[in-house]
Amino acid sequence: MKLEKTTNAYSLPGRSYDDACGAAHALDLVGERWALLVMRELMLGPLRFSDLRAALPGISANVLTQRLEGLEGIGALVRRRLPPPGAVQVYELTPWGYEAEPILQALGRWATRSPMHDPTLPLSPVSLMLSFRTMFDPVRADGFEARIGFRLGGEDYMVRIGKGRIEAARAPIENADAVFTGTAPAVAGAVYAGVPLAVLEADGALEVDGYRTIANRFVTLFPLPPKIQT
Questions:
Q1: Taking Cα atoms as reference points, which of 69, 65, 31 lies closest to residue 49?
Q2: Most buried by CB count within 10 Å: which residue of 48, 49, 84, 184?
Q3: Which helix H or strand E contains 60, and what residues bound it?
Q4: Which domains, and CATH codes, for the chain?
């Protein structure tokens, strides 16, 4: 029996693979360059166009506009205007758009095993927070409960750990047990490259306030998967 092609209000952003495989259709939807990274930056909540440009310095305004229109066209995000006094336009993922986080996590775990992965490249604060949600090891965090604040690029983020679970969000950092102030790459250096906090502080790359024992324990909770054997 020949299946009939369905039609709807959505539209693909580029050329189609014309392949019924779900993976092929996923690439139809978000396979354009920058599309998944735009979605990554929206995983912690809505952002303005200028916020997205700042988080993705390699993207042009024209390409960002195209990707936002494409993601809106497939139903992955919406545009809305904040109420006064903000009254600015923001871009926000739809519930279906937020469901893409496990895809980003799986890609991240898989790709970090590549010998070609360069952890010294630029890293956005949102990417850092998502990496915590991806690489968190509940076994290493056994018995550990803490609230860790981050001041990164003019934004505050809070990571909460307890009962083998982690939450990472853009949020006020009052009452944090420890606070990291600096850049996302500097924090990643401590967490993923094992650079001692004291070294980063001496270099002026990072400030750590609050309970030092909690900060030192925190940076050990995110082991990277082993590199592939070549």
A1: 65
A2: 184
A3: none
A4: 22-98 (1.10.10.10), 108-218 (3.30.1050.10)
